[in-house]
Amino acid sequence: ISYPKVQKSFKSALEKYHNKIYQRNLIDDLRLSLELLFKEILNNNKGLENQEKALGEYLKEKNVPKQLKNMYWKLIDYYAKYQNSYAKHENKADSMDSSEIEFVIYLTGTFIRFLLTLEDSKNERK
Questions:
Q1: pLDDT per residue over 72-86, tens digit each?
Q2: pTM of the model
Q3: How far from each other are the two terminal CA atoms of the chain, in whole angstroms?
């Protein structure tokens, strides 16, 4: 399964992190990669914060347990609030340290990986 726009944005964030460019757009690239994946998989053009209903329906179709579905959305909600706080304010983003940024990178990757495994037809849940 290929999502070139998602990959490009995520890779851009990783390159910035690797080169120690801890700026607002690194965090924004991570958010964009997740948002683009949601838009592609859920087949809509909504922003990250407005995907709850569509995501819930998608996860239900994939037979994801209710507790996991709720946890996934709750984490997305906190993630979006964090992103809004840091990605929109240059001075806050500049104060982030590498451990904080690395946490957000791995969290974003986990969100993405979960959806990609659900999209993989060989991983159908029963």
A1: 999 999 999 998 887
A2: 0.89
A3: 21
